[in-house]
Amino acid sequence: MKVNIPKHIHMYKRENLTRNPEKKPYMVFRCIKPTCNHHIPLDRALGKIAECCRCNEPFIIDKETIKLAKPHCQNCFKRTEKPTIDLLADFVKDV
Question: What gap in Å lies between CA 31 and CA 29, rounded to an integer?
Fold first, then answer.
C-alpha cells in the first residue's frame, strides 16, 4: 500500500477559484512554493499544519489564521496592546 508523504510543509495563500464573478466565491488555500500545485478548500484547512509566511516555522491553522490572505503563526501577529498577563505583571511589579 502506497502512503502519500508530503515532501514539504505547505506555505499557503488564500485565493478565489471562481471564474464567473456572478457566482458564489470558491475560496481555497493554495501552496505558494514554486514546485507545488496543492490547494485545499478553506473549510478543510482547519487543524492542518502549514509553514508561516513570515518566520517559516510550522504552525497549525486555526480560526484566526484561516481569515488571513497569507496565514502566519501566533508569534508573528502584530499586537496593538499588551496582553493581560503583561499588564498584571507590570502592576504587581509597581506595588
Answer: 7
